[in-house]
Design goal:
The chain has about 700 residues and is an alpha/beta fold. It is built from 35 helices and 21 strands. Strand 19, helix 34 and strand 20 form a beta-alpha-beta unit.
Length: about 700
């Protein structure tokens, strides 16, 4: 089944939609409460540093852990890959004459498909985590790393239980379902001769493992049977208890929004066991490589091994919220799942699911281990594009059109002419594109304007304004061709404030669309061409953008793709330090605006505004609009645009947009403001398509209508 067929199937699953939407809403509130009073970014920086190891350093920690554990009679083994790990575990089970094996939830065992292997060996593994057990008897695999059965309702669980037990189950009687699970599972703890767990942490200095659960099943699995097997990836090693506690502090807050999990179990050495012939438990630690060790020295994939398996990248992902983990991932779920699939599993499968990333950076921003997941996904897209090529039509656009200003300009001029029969009564929007299917026409798209921003800049003599206070403005493609008035309004505002505004001699795409789609070569050429037309950074107080995505590309990608070009890199570095958005610039320069109207204003935060440029203007807007400013629920959640993503996956894009529109309607605002032309295109197009009377505008358009307060 193709990825797009799977996506459509999940988009039509109303139960899945409701489950994930409810969880996402509750999680954000719980997580915020759990993190209240903590310096999240400092804590995650500490975790990042505590897990920043080379291959040699990890092997040294492993030897230290092994030495400490073996002193107490435990066995420590190395498994090169999934096959060797499975064989080691099966051999241990057979050695101890085990028929039944109780398992605590372990994503590492999912990675090696341990249950399938054991069953083929005539052994009987029983999952004891409630969610995992539900999926085991239902014949499914997890859709989330922490909450494996998040996609199922209690009604669906009741049917699974009825089929398995033969009992009639009331889906509203949660207590009875829990008792049934306890009744069916409890006997296996005593019948099993082997218990298998994973480990959240392995402390080398003491030979201690830490296991975090909410049900206590890991404690039972590790203590009741006479044999305990711990399957753990090398990346779970940390130096000491202090580093371990940093992870424990953030893991439950990021995973489920809890202050702390119900059970945090520490196990050291071999413990007594009345069921063992020696009086001591037989304990085996199996450290799984499966490619991990080599990746510890990889230039950009190594950071993925800092993951603490909290699942927060899925919890905050707008695309995951629409389709769930059976599509957005493979064995591992969420943004980290897209990455780990390429590292540990099927590379071609990874290429397919990488396209589901909308590029919003929510995963990077919320990762408690400080992993820039979005950056790794971007690098993987480029790698996959080089190895497997990209869509020929996209390739042509990126390599022949976007990086060639004259060709791009001519193409947009032609588009402005041929679109005329498609324009609606306003002459500002395209009514419907006949070349696209109905699912793509979920919004009204803006028309290509006959005059570009650069043309209007010169026609209005903006280039004749001189001042000792100078800024450089990078318009970007959307302002240049679709929304030139955003740019002209910003220039007028800044000139009223006494600033000279310069623009590029020639307008070139920032390169982000090519890079995100996997065409790094065209992206690099576009960036190098851009730098030729951007002014001398020494001459300007700031480099202004009205599109945060362009700003983020200038801050991050320009430097990354000019590393081998010394002068261009130096210029990129200087420009990156001066890139800013309009509201941030006004705020820093103490330029205040006076609002005399009574219209209600709300604000949508573009993905790359706070998570790229590092400034969210809500306080500035509250100061400007006073009581007329109405905060928007989930303001910083993606609107679903994502550039070409909304064309590639219109069902996901429109689903995300509809959630945004519901929140906008709840504010009862007259005007929705935002910092991004792409967000304007998406949200305004959706509101107009649904005939909802809310004006959508860029900050520059409204700010220019206000008077500047004199200090």
């Amino acid at each position: 089944m193709s990825i797009k067929t799977k996506v459509k199937e999940k988009l039509n699953d109303k139960i899945l939609y409701s489950n994930l939407k409810t969880f996402a809403e509750n999680y954000k509130v719980s997580r915020a409460n759990a993190l209240s009073g903590l310096d999240f970014f400092k804590l995650r920086h500490d975790i990042y540093k505590s897990k920043d190891f080379t291959k040699d350093e990890i092997l040294s920690l492993f030897e230290e852990f092994k030495s400490n554990v073996e002193k107490s009679g435990c066995t420590v083994l190395h498994a090169e890959d999934a096959a060797s790990a499975n064989k080691l575990i099966a051999d241990i089970c057979k050695k101890h004459s085990a028929e039944y094996i109780v398992k605590s939830k372990s994503m590492t065992s999912e990675e090696i498909k341990l249950n399938d292997y054991l069953e083929k060996q005539g052994l009987k593994p029983v999952e004891t985590d409630l969610g995992e057990w539900i999926l085991q008897i239902a014949g499914e695999h997890p859709s989330h790393m922490v909450m494996p059965a998040i996609h199922k309702t209690r009604q669906q669980v009741a049917k699974v239980f009825e089929k398995h037990t033969g009992e009639k189950i009331d889906p509203d009687d949660i207590n009875k379902m829990v008792k049934i699970a306890r009744k069916y599972l409890r006997e296996f703890y005593f019948k099993a001769k082997v218990g298998i767990t994973g480990a959240n942490i392995a402390i080398s200095s003491s030979g201690t493992i830490g296991i975090v659960t909410n049900e206590g099943n890991a404690r039972l699995s590790s203590t009741v049977p006479p044999v305990h097997i711990v399957l753990v990836g090398y990346e779970k090693l940390v130096k000491n208890f202090s580093d371990a506690m940093k992870i424990i502090r953030l893991l439950p807050k990021s995973a489920t929004g809890q202050n702390i999990s119900t059970y945090v179990t520490w196990i050291k050495g071999s413990n007594p066991s009345f069921k063992s012939e020696t009086g001591k438990k037989h304990t085996y630690y199996i450290f799984l490589d499966n490619g991990r060790l080599s990746f510890l020295d990889h230039p950009f994939l190594k950071d993925a091994l800092k993951c603490i398996r909290c699942g927060s990248c899925a919890n905050v992902c707008p695309a995951y919220e629409m389709v769930g983990g059976h599509v957005f991932g493979d064995i591992y779920i969420g943004a980290i799942g897209l990455i780990l699939t390429s590292m540990l599993h099927d590379e071609k499968k990874a290429k397919e699911i990488l396209s589901l990333c909308i590029g919003c950076k929510a995963c990077s921003y919320n990762c408690p281990a400080g992993i820039d997941l979005q950056s790794i996904i971007s690098d993987l897209n480029v790698y996959m594009g080089q190895k497997y090529s990209i869509n020929p039509a996209k390739k042509f656009v990126y390599s022949a059109v976007l990086k060639n200003p004259s060709v791009f300009k001519s193409a947009m001029k032609v588009a402005s002419i041929i679109q005329k029969p498609l324009l609606d009564e306003t002459k500002e929007n395209i009514g419907k594109l006949p070349i696209l299917s109905d699912e793509h026409n979920f919004r009204k798209l803006p028309s290509v304007k006959e005059k570009t921003f650069s043309q209007m800049f010169k026609q209005n003599n903006f280039d004749k304004f001189n001042s000792s206070k100078k800024v450089f403005f990078y318009p970007g493609c959307a302002v240049e061709y679709f929304f030139p008035e955003m740019g002209t309004k910003m220039v007028q505002l800044l000139q009223k404030a006494g600033f000279q505004v310069d623009i590029p001699d020639t307008q070139v795409c920032c390169g982000l669309p090519a890079i995100h789609s996997g065409d790094g070569k065209s992206g690099k050429k576009t960036i190098l061409k851009n730098l030729k037309y951007m002014g001398n950074p020494e001459e300007y107080e700031a480099f202004l953008v009205l599109c945060p995505s362009c700003g983020m590309a200038i801050k991050e990608d320009f430097k990354k793709y000019t590393l081998e070009y010394i002068s261009e890199f130096k210029k990129s570095e200087k420009i990156a330090n001066k890139v800013t958005s309009l509201a941030d610039f006004l705020n820093k320069n103490n330029i205040r605006l006076k609002y005399d109207d009574n219209k209600k204003i709300t604000y949508h935060t573009p993905c790359h505004q706070g998570r790229g440029l590092g400034f969210v203007p809500e306080d500035f807007l509250k100061e400007t609009f006073g009581e007329n400013f109405i905060p928007l629920k989930d303001s910083n959640v993606c609107c679903g645009f994502g550039g070409s993503f909304s064309v590639e996956y219109p069902g996901i894009s429109s689903g995300i947009l509809n959630k945004k529109i519901e929140n906008i309607k709840d504010t009862k605002a007259d005007i929705l403001l935002t910092d991004c032309p792409g967000c304007v295109m998406q949200i305004d197009g959706g509101l107009k398509k649904q005939n909802i009377n809310v004006k959508v505008a860029h900050l520059s358009e409204i700010f220019n209508e206000l008077d500047i307060e004199k200090n």
